[in-house]
Amino acid sequence: EDKVVQSPLSLVVHEGDTVTLNCSYEVTNFRSLLWYKQEKKAPTFLFMLTSSGIEKKSGRLSSILDKKELFSILNITATQTGDSAVYLCAAMNRDDKIIFGKGTRLHILP
Amino acid sequence: EPEVTQTPSHQVTQMGQEVILRCVPISNHLYFYWYRQILGQKVEFLVSFYNNEISEKSEIFDDQFSVERPDGSNFTLKIRSTKLEDSAMYFCASINYMQETQYFGPGTRLLVL
Questions:
Q1: Residues B74 and B23: beta-carbon distance below 8 Å
Q2: Cross-strand bridge partners of residue B33
Q3: Which of 57-86 (A) contact B at CB < 8 A?
């Protein structure tokens, strides 16, 4: 059965800290790995990773995929209180089915 | 910034009634999706749609569910006979694989009484 496992489930850090969120997957016919930020409502897309070893960056956020070890990490540097959210990881297969993890709830203390 | 729109934002219906949730994906996207999120639970994939047909569907997407793109812009999810357990937030999304981006709509909160 396809699955996506995120860790930790929750994380509390102080503003300015760097955090690393983990995502491992077991998906048949894997295509891409996606990261989202979910605050109150709809998930906001962060990254889509298809190639192994190529880091994607957007401001203080970066992510990389390891297709050999079947995991991805999402790094957030110099965290701010506005980074508090649930971060979702999802794996997509080549039939366009997307399997979500349960998310990591990140809380940034001022 | 392009956006996916969904209507209605909220819908309350009686058990057994049909509902149609509407989405307007981003115009140059070709792949469309419906997801749902029951309150407090994780996002669940329902169905993917490409080239006017379903690419993949989950176990949740049974005979009570259907999708169509009737006019080339709207993308609809129909639930034929709603059940209490269909109460959830329903999100539409579209992907542009060339740009490696995906956009979610704001969601429709469905409450089945």
A1: yes
A2: B48, B93
A3: none
